[in-house]
Here is the input.
Amino acid sequence: MPSITINGRPAEFEEGQSILEVALAQEQEIPHYCWHPGLSVVANCRICLAEIWAPNPRNEGKLEPMPKLMPTCQTMAQDGQVVYTDSPKAVANQRSVMELLLINHPVDCPVCDQAGECYLQDYAYRYGRASSRFEEEKIKQPKKDIGEHVLLYGDRCIMCTRCVRFTREVTGTEELMVQGRGATEEIDVFPGKGLDNELSGNVVDLCPVGALLDKDFLFAQRVWFMTKTPSIDGITASGDNISVEHNNGTVFRLKPRPNASINKWWISDEIRYGWKFIHDESRHVMPMLRSRDEWPSPKAAEAWTASMEAATKGLKSDGRLAMMVSPMLSCEDAWHLGQMALSIDPQAVIGVGPVPFNGEDKSFPGGYTVRAEKAPNARGVRRVLSALGIDVLDAVGMEKALSSNTSIDRVILTGNYPSEWVTPSFADAVGQERFLLLIDTLPNSLTSRADVFLPGATWMEKAGTFENVDGILQSFEQAIEPVDYCKSEAQIAMDLQSALSGQKPTVFNAAATRQAMASQAALDRFVSDVTLPKVPQTVESDMSIIEL
Here is the structure.
């Protein structure tokens, strides 16, 4: 396999890789601003220039230096090259570029949302000068509102043009442009055409400095206080890889995780901002009984005990049990709910909840697709329930069964949708006489009708597995603790099954559940084919700390 040497370290590469790509693959840092793996290469920031020596075929293959520093983002790796980014020439270039970039940049790091994850900060510390030689007046540019979700702070822009290339190459909407020349260059929107596309929030992630900022996250939290937890899109069927960024049990933002086969480097604005129902003030966080008022929060233990006793009593009957498992739940939730239902009634009528759709799939020139299906796990829930030997109904079939089958006297419904999901016809099919156990998050038309209401946990508050529209199984980690007194549907099912059988309750564990599921031949994929998230490694700071 061909190889090159970067700063004294050998590195193998594949044909067609640039020197910068080879270095990053080997976890060797070469400073860069304008380069991004999902965009075209323009080599305009010039900080990645390196001194390159290469074998000269006209001189018996002897190593000879190229006549000038070369951009590593644009120069293809060739066997035998020797690259220096730490030579005197390369270091001098890095310092010069940083000095030029900081000439008009405002020193407003303390109030900038990008502080703590800003390439300009990092590179100024590693490659810049200790003090500025610029004494003239800085060129000032106004702050602009360029779209529904994005603010532009022109003073901070370093003209890497990532955002412009994104709107041209990935979305194809071309709202952003470069206006002016020289020192007065600036990013702007075309007159009368704001940044308005389904992927607009990605320009904030692309910006290496604090020029493009998210209105929703503005001044909300310092990034070094937040924890990043790898997760999967829990709102649509796309299965996009995301990071949930949170602090003290509160989610502040979602950002994309790269996955070349699913979402590349992007997520839609629907996914980026659609998680707010998790902290919605109307969300139910306490169990409720139809026969009494809601418990005050200090009596949460009493509320759960009384509700579980009422649920256990109501589920004991000689009639048929019907259960509808929401496509918003994980495969592990479906497994435990299915087992619980069959332990109560081996002939239970079981189905998958309604799968919301909105329009049609929309694909962009860059390869990203916004999915019309707005449920993350309809296929996974059906797969798991079918493996239990159940003839799984869809939502229409379940409604018909509830309307026509008078032997059904107990109903378990799960929701967890980000908005209203109960239709008037479905509520009529459930009726007023049957015992109803509702496990949900937000209020709906059946909340007050339910004999027992148990608050469920959203996907960010538990671990599990989703199967996306392409049949890919991906697991996700729990980001935050369940809000107040909510519990995962899997844990509720395990508690109910234990109470009904008189056994000691157990604690839900997603990995252990997948192992149990894989013991059945139909579900062996849950061990062999589940994509596990990469656990982020803790980065040690190179800043010396002095104890006072």
About this structure: The chain is about 25% helix and 20% strand. The first helix runs from residue 19 to 25. The radius of gyration is 28 Å.
